[in-house]
Amino acid sequence: MADYDVIVVGAGIAGSVCANYLAREGKRTLLLEQNHQAGGNMSGFTRRGFTFDAGDQSFESLGIVFPILEDLGVYDQQDWIKCRYRMVSEDFDFFIDSIDAVEDALRTAFPREPGFGQLFAEIREVSRFLDRVYTPRSFPLLHDFHPARAARAILPWLPRLKRWSTFRYREKACSLIQDKRLRHWLTNIGYYRMPYLFFAGFWHLWSSDYWYPAGGMQAFHNRLVDAYTGSGGEVRFNTRVARIRDSASREVVVTTAEGMEISASKVIYAGDYRALVDSIIGPEQFGAPLVGRLRDTRLTEGLVSVYLGLDMDDEELSRILGGAHHPFYFPNYEVIFPDENSPEAVHRDMWVALNHFGPRSVSAPPGKSTLTVQTYSSWSWQKYWRNGGDSFPRTQEYRELKERVGYELVGTAEQLVPGLRNRIEFMDVGSPLSLKRFTLNSEGSSGGWCYDDQVSPVFRFPGLNRIRTPLRNVYACGHYALWPGGVISAVQCGRIVANLASGKKILAPLGS
Ligand SMILES: Cc1cc2nc3c(=O)[nH]c(=O)nc-3n(C[C@H](O)[C@H](O)[C@H](O)COP(=O)(O)OP(=O)(O)OC[C@H]3O[C@@H](n4cnc5c(N)ncnc54)[C@H](O)[C@@H]3O)c2cc1C
Questions:
Q1: Ligand 1 pocket: which of 32, 33, 41, 477 to mutate (most atoms <8 Å of CB)?
Q2: 0.70 surpassed by pTM
């Protein structure tokens, strides 16, 4: 008999959600995580009394995340802060409280621009679509799936959805804007070549459906793991899985980096997909064409994060930020995606997002506060940040470069928080190499595969998922397995894969 019914590899949100469902079904479940804690891209850390959210700072529910957390009994244990976004440049300063507010602010900033009317009419159309199919607490089409009802709701939108799901259409829609700088900005902000649906949908989500778990991401993830162990599941941290293989007895055998073998009837792998193909299952099992395509597939951007412990209390910082949880500052209308060829000063000219959630956020010593400043970056930039590769120990040049980039971002953030550098009591900088180190995600990718269906040919509609693997009882799960990556797809994928592994319908109603 196998050691476990199911082994889940990776305690990011996908693995934790999946393991929760399986343990609740009474399956003997083992969750293995290479880090010392759960969370993956959403984990946190504490230094000198300041607690930070290391990667993801908040997320959407889209009527998927909250109902699933509710189903797992975790939603109500948690206080949720509805996030407010603010966008600032030399021309505008507005809150994304509604699509009307965004249009008004841009019309005021660019009074001679004729293209707004048509562009925003269609952005409102996307918003209407999203309003029809979900609320933050309910996406009935996914949670209680009836083909006829789903067809009735989606069919009228299908032609538009087909158009909206491409980046090409975004270019076309934004070409209505005459001001070159603004057109470029609207066409390109967000992840690289994000399709029109995501571009338009984000204005909707930023105004109505972005959430932060009060107390911080790590505390939220610890709750998810507690719910799992409370259902009888077992978890082992600091345990990296190196191999997954079939055995003659039809059990699946997982080998850890230390060489320990553990068997299970089924294995769910919720970590980096490239590692799954390259070494954990092995390229020979996947076949050369897929392996080739996967190697060429672009990943979503890695980020650089500057973690600041400030000699300034939460109230003062919140006041300075105007009460926004996510103010963005754009020093120009360039949209830069750094790569290995980008110049040394590339981050100096980039947009920054400031993240601060007020007194109900992660903790800081009395009278102090935390602020995280982020922008996109690249793993391979400047020869892997002057580290020459992923190796340890990191070079002195790497540390110096990280600190320099950190101060460049602080310099840009000072447009919103004047004198910020003089209030810093603690500072650390996370590069895409750090993201890779703590999550094992290739290149420090933040959200799985690139969002553009043309650039990511394997994930074109309708072949959106890579849940099944060449091994019969091994499933992939998480932000690489269900496109497009992000918290919503990771959570939804956790539930789908748990259903598959338990022999249920993929979209079995919640609570069943
Ligand atoms: C800075 C940043 C901002 C983001 N912003 C947003 C946002 O606004 N909205 C949104 O929806 N998404 C956002 N994301 C993306 C989102 O956080 C991720 O898509 C999501 O958390 C992925 O969850 P996951 O469980 O699939 O993978 P991960 O979080 O990567 O978890 C995988 C886990 O598996 C473990 N693991 C990997 N390999 C092994 C192994 N061999 N053995 C054992 N354990 C292993 C890792 O340590 C990790 O804990 C952001 C991400 C970042 C970094």
A1: 41
A2: yes
